[in-house]
Amino acid sequence: MKLFNAVAIVTGSATGSGAACALQLARKGCRVVVNYTKSEQEARETVEACRAAGVEALLVQGDVANDADCRRMAQAALDKWGRIDVLINNAGITKFVAATDLEGLTTADWQHLYAVNVIGAYQMIRACVPAMQKQGEGAIVNISSISGVLGIGSSTAYVATKGALNSMTLALARSLAPEIRVNGVAPGLIETRWHTARFPNPEAYDKFKAGYVQTVPLAKAASADDVAEVAVWLVEGAALVTGEIILVDGGLHLGKFSVKPVEKKI
Known about the structure:
By secondary structure, the protein is of the alpha/beta class. The protein has one domain: 3-Layer(aba) Sandwich (Rossmann fold), CATH 3.40.50.720. It is built from nine helices and seven strands; from the N terminus they run βαβαβαβαβααβαααβ. A seven-stranded parallel β-sheet has the order 3-2-1-4-5-6-7, with helices on both faces. α4 links the parallel β4 and β5. The radius of gyration is 19 Å and the shape is globular.
């Protein structure tokens, strides 16, 4: 897909991977809708960064858990530019609860995580699909998580929502073909405030990260730009790729196993 003068909506794009996606799209000449729920100042900074890249950018506040907000976001893009070419579903939430703490998640917690992480993505897709179908082309990328593949993560509810998002990606790749491609990106640890904010100080985060990278074959965590590069490639360069979940986890899913040759005893 040619991104110059295309139109993209990136949900949850005030900070982190969403902001990186918006900016990388903008640098390729794509006009961008920047969406936020609460982080208005950061969202405005993302909009200004996109504009500094030489494209138009539109700021839209909205909660993807609210279907009316999703439809309003899509309509805002159509009102301004008359088309929607790209949707990156990045908005997501979690609650940090140990997997062994079965009392740590309430019914309301489960419903809230599903409302944003799964239903919100579906509602955004539903709002954008008619415009893409009318144009005869569109690309959707759902930002998932390695949690939905390995069954480990910030909470059991989060793991379940990302597994559901992955399955939904496959289902919609089938039902929306051939006009629209639907893919997912599943990162491991991303060095953004999503993770750093839950630690009491930088030293605690550094200790956690050091333990994490020891389990990763490539021995590093992802940056927001690492995630965005894959998402943008799925939009721009992967013309025959649909229904794929690309793991951006440094090989975490492989496990850290020794591949050194074993010395033979003579």
